[in-house]
Amino acid sequence: MGKKKKRERKPIPDWWKAVDREMRLYLTWERVIKQQEDIILTHRLTGLRTTPVYELREGTPGGPTTYEVEKIAMDIDFAERKIAAGMAYRANIEEIAREAAGGDPAKETFIHRYWLTVRNLGIKGRIAMVLDALPSLACQNWETGQRTRPSRNFYVWREKMYDELGELLGHK
Fold first, then answer.
1. DSSP classification of residue 9
2. For 127-149, how does the pLDDT look when each residue is reduced to its tens digit (9 = 90+)?
3. Which of 41, 61, 104, 139 counts the highest number of beta carbons within 10 A?
4. Within a 13 Å sphere around the CA of 112, how many CA atoms are in the beta-carbon half?
5. What are the boundaries of each domain within the chain?
6. pLDDT, tens digit, for every residue of 38-58?
7. Which candidate, 164, 134, 163, places its Cα nearest to that of 151?
8. How far apart (Å, rounded) are the C-alpha atoms in residues 116 and 27?
């Protein structure tokens, strides 16, 4: 009796990696938006104090100065622009997720759990999150009733989602 050969894993296509990267930016923008809102809040809570402005005499060293008020106004404006860009990106990704799911709430749940829920979670963790929400995509041990691993259906769904998202994001 010979040894059983292990199946080799297929390498992950580059366009799958590009889809993953773009979908994970959804979570990055969430953090950036929160940081920018904190910057705006800090500036507004600190307030502006009126300070006297002294003009330099002719012939004295000195140069152009920026006033604190200008700096604060520019920080707030920049933060507001970042927030708007982040919200637009997130809305776009949410629309792409709805489109890729094709109106199926289970597939939309799959996309949200697999890509848009937790940052820095490995593939096994993402699979576990999907299987928690959609137990029909898991193999079960009939004796114990516990989920053992993803079923073939899980991988079929994931491949379809990658195809849809790849098309919609322009990577395929």
1. P
2. 889 998 888 888 877 777 677 78
3. 139
4. 15
5. 15-47+67-169
6. 999 998 888 665 555 566 667
7. 134
8. 7
